[in-house]
Design brief:
The chain has 9 helices and 11 strands. By secondary structure, the chain is an alpha+beta fold. It starts with a strand and ends in an 11-residue tail after the last strand.
Length: 303
């Protein structure tokens, strides 16, 4: 849901806030096999990760991995981190390796910027990570809170494209100017003294205001690299409409193009999405879903 200090102007780089969701997930199963096979969505990416981990951990790759569900890639939802951690956790359980989630993340080079994907795999809920300092291996979790059960999140997808990733993302960070020290300090204060207390007090309006301010600040900073505060102009139009309808926490996930907002109550969320689908039916590439927060980490079942 946003970064705090994009260029380490206060001594630590990045730092971010995010929430685990139930409705978009990575699920896989792993069994013994005569030869290494991986099937299902994102199978090529999963196979590459699994093969690498087997070599690093010095375990047999005589496995059959079935990807039952995969988060869409490069749309700002942490698909790479969740896939890597899910495969690593499965191998850890399968071979009884005794690894922690953090150790798996380190092996797969996750958490190079945001630590949200690692934090939510560990514990779910709302997570704030402390970014990267000189001695950071994976960004530490500074705050973990359960999200109120009646809060809902509307995600707006643009099926046409992907956000910046890989070498493009690296080049974008290198081309952007230093993030202002005063703005990083303001965002830290907003998050610590307004955003997190609002979650504790179940005040979605105040929480939403903080996230919207954070998103606007980061979006304006990213604008030269992504073509505006939102990567997708159609998502931007939909988010402006949702804002006018009473949604809060208006923003874009990571480099997008996915937009998000929050509302209080499932019925209101479903009603908003029904009307949004009608309002933006002429945008054939847009899709909307309602998601709930997941206040627990990744599940591992042995059968």
């Amino acid at each position: 849901m946003g970064f705090i200090d994009l260029s380490g102007s206060l001594g630590r780089h990045f730092g971010s806030i995010g929430i685990a969701l139930n409705e978009i997930s990575t699920r896989l199963s792993m069994t013994f096999a005569e030869q290494f096979t991986v099937t299902g969505p994102a199978a090529q990416r999963a196979a590459k990760c699994a093969a690498m981990l087997c070599r690093m951990l010095q375990v047999s790759d005589r496995l059959n991995i079935t990807i039952e569900a995969a988060i869409p890639e490069h749309v700002g939802l942490g698909s790479g981190t969740q896939m890597s951690l899910a495969i690593g956790a499965a191998l850890n359980e399968f071979y009884g390796l005794g690894l922690t989630v953090r150790e798996i993340a380190q092996l797969t080079d996750r958490g190079m910027r945001s630590g949200i994907g690692i934090g939510v795999f560990e514990q779910g809920g709302l997570v704030v990570d402390g970014g990267r300092g000189e001695k950071t291996i994976t960004p530490p979790v500074l705050a973990h809170m359960d999200v109120p059960d009646d809060w809902r999140f509307i995600l707006v997808f643009d099926q046409r494209g992907q956000g910046l990733h890989g070498q493009q993302e690296i080049q974008a960070f290198e081309s952007l100017p230093s993030f202002p020290v005063q703005e990083a300090a303001r965002l830290c204060y907003l998050l610590l003294m307004q955003g997190l207390p609002a979650v504790a007090e179940k005040d979605i309006v105040k929480f939403g205001d903080v996230i919207t301010q954070l998103q606007r600040s980061v979006g304006e900073y990213f604008a030269p690299a992504q073509g505006g505060i939102f990567t997708s102009s159609e998502v931007a139009e939909a988010m402006e409409w949702l804002d006018r309808q009473g949604a809060v926490a208006i923003g874009q996930t990571s480099w997008g193009p996915t937009g998000f907002c929050a509302v209080d109550g499932g019925h209101f969320a479903e009603s908003l999405v029904r009307h949004a689908r009608q309002e933006f039916a002429h945008f054939e590439n847009l899709s909307f879903i309602v998601a709930s927060a997941r206040n627990s980490g990744g599940d591992i079942f042995v059968m």
